[in-house]
Model the fold of this input.
Amino acid sequence: MLRSKILNRIRLLKPVIDRRCMSSASKTPLTLLEVDDKSGIATLSLNRPPVNSLNIDLMNSIIESITEIEGNKSRGLILTSANDRVFCAGLDLNELHKPNQERLKEFWAVFQDVWLALHLCSVPTAAAINGHAPAGGCLLATACEYRVMLPQMTIGLNETQFGYMAPKWVMLSYLSVLPRRLAERALTQGKLFTTAEALDVGLVDEIAASKEEALAKCSTFIDSFSKANPLARSLTKKQIREPDVQKLIADRAGDLKECLEYINSPLLQDGLGAYFEALKQKSRSKAGKS
Ligand SMILES: CC/C=C\CC/C=C/CC(=O)SCCNC(=O)CCNC(=O)[C@H](O)C(C)(C)COP(=O)(O)OP(=O)(O)OC[C@H]1O[C@@H](n2cnc3c(N)ncnc32)[C@H](O)[C@@H]1OP(=O)(O)O
Done:
């Protein structure tokens, strides 16, 4: 009785993701999903060159993969990148800069969905962070239960550096990993932690010398649940994570309204435009085009 009550409650908490079986406009798979026959662990690789920035299609592809992993009885999920320099560059700035308003609404709803799907994923989750993970990239990593990172990368919620305040639920994701005082300072500074700093403050759990080692460490973490009953484990995780999730689910429309006002404000658009232009300029200089 109690179990079915809890299960019903959790079903209500689950984001509505079934409506989003969209196909990608390009023919390239935006995510690569492999399930190891022996271990039963699924590896989901982000595969949107050049930097895995999160647009609607990539986020939908992640959601679809999570749904598949939950449905195919995988023992765990490892999130990683097919790119060996960048785990995920966060939200696609093309979606935020001078946005089409209807698309922006859809984009923000899918952004909420992808976080909910990963944060509430029923199987154990770990991130093999094999590249930089700023902003939304850091959010994906902190939604996972365990993080292993390669040296000389950066991770953090750097939104204030380009004039944005991270949404409340994004901040909560940070607060679930970092002590409050540290999270506040890092959020207000828009700090990007180096791998060594991230380990030091507990933003990541381990460092690995290579992607293979990171994947192996993530598998070891997932194996650590072998003695736990999968249903009891997943219900426990959801109960613990519920308060953060409820805040967003209870007011998705309010979050969207706030986001639209915020993103559309001229000051923020100007700041974002300058930031994006500087990124493009840096990229051109690197390629020797300027
Ligand atoms: C109510 C609240 C409202 C709003 C909240 C807003 C929340 C925002 C959350 C976000 O996630 S916003 C995105 C923030 N992301 C970043 O700040 C990361 C920016 N990128 C980088 O720092 C670097 O690109 C990198 C460290 C990830 C990788 O460096 P590198 O390997 O040297 O690549 P390049 O910098 O040369 O970039 C290659 C290529 O990719 C483009 N690009 C990079 N990041 C993005 C992005 N987030 N969106 C779109 N495009 C991006 C970059 O411009 C280059 O493109 P070119 O065509 O110019 O070559």
Summary: DSSP finds twelve helices and nine strands in the chain.
